[in-house]
Design brief:
This protein has 349 residues and is of the alpha+beta class. The protein folds into 2 domains: 2-143 and 305-312, Gcn5-related N-acetyltransferase (GNAT) (Aminopeptidase); 146-281, Aminopeptidase, CATH 3.40.630.30. The protein contains 12 helices and 14 strands. It has helices at 9-17, 28-37, 93-110, 125-132, 153-158, 162-173, 184-187, 191-201, 208-216, 260-274, 289-296, 314-342; strands at 2-5, 41-50, 53-64, 70-74, 84-85, 114-119, 137-143, 146-148, 176-180, 220-227, 230-239, 243-251, 279-281, 304-311. Helix 10 (260-274) links the parallel strand 12 and strand 13 (279-281). The longest helix is centred in the last third of the chain and has 29 residues, at 314-342.
Length: 349
Amino acid sequence: MLARDCTDEAEWDAFVRGIPWATVHHAFRYGRLLAACFGYLRPAYRLIESGGRPIAGIPLMEFSIGRLCSSLQCLPFDIYGGPLLHPDHLEDPELHQAVARDVDARAARVGAFEARFSIPVSAPPAVRRCLELLGRIDSRRTDCPVLSLSQSLDHIRQGYRPELRRALRAGARHGVTVEADAPMEALRPLYPLYRNRMEEIGATVKPWRFIEGIVAERIGTPFVAYQGDRPVGFLILLATPGIAIYWISASDPAASQARPMNALLDAAIAWSHGQGILKFSLGESHGRAGLVRFKQGFGPGPGEHVVVVRAYRPGIQRTWRMLEPMARRSYALWDRCRSSLLDPRKLGS
């Protein structure tokens, strides 16, 4: 087996399309957008071949903020990445060993203090078993509820909890409508709602240029809720034939009685069903009880998102864990100031 870099978008994406459980995040253009938006990330996508044919792909990003602080992430921000194993080679022990050897070699080459893998809910168990060959690893599991879209839309909606169905009827009475694949000009004025909400709960804010790039590159599909003619909320969906992922959203607190978020998520589910997508991931709730209850209203089944970490330089890893929250806040502040200076219309992004 031969491992090599892959810098050809067409070659990489052709392989990704052959993996039934791949997510939008595995696409080459997603990594390219990450690198363009965040200067401390650099793609290092790897293919493993057998007989001249790719049988595994590792979408690595090199994270670096100085010579002593580098890591490998697959993919950053704990979003759905993870190695891609060809369906015919899922249980191939030689391939699993080749993936582990290549990650170790890459980590040594860049002096990484850790390699971090985010395994999507759609991935088969073989992916986790493959990463166990890295040796001593730490893992974290978070609930990631998934709704099956294999039955009729009416049947799926019958599985909604009664309180959710009442909320949808209330939204209709208040005049809430949802536009799928909404234009950027409808989405942009809603960004401050998202930013303010993320800052309120202490979560990382995705800059506007990244969200704009996701939509412009056709990586994500935006949905906008209106009450009358006024936009009152948005949702962005990341979809492949195998799975649609509820990515980010926000709504106007002044429109809370109209429950626009219920209408947005229902519309995203209906759109995904109409596209023939098999599953709908509602994403992690990060311990927020209200968000858990909201998602459970749609009647999903259980699922898990797993993050696996292999430490190579534990001392530096521990130091980075202590400094990371402050570093993220400092970068976010610097980035907002920079964007405002470059273009005052960027909404403080």
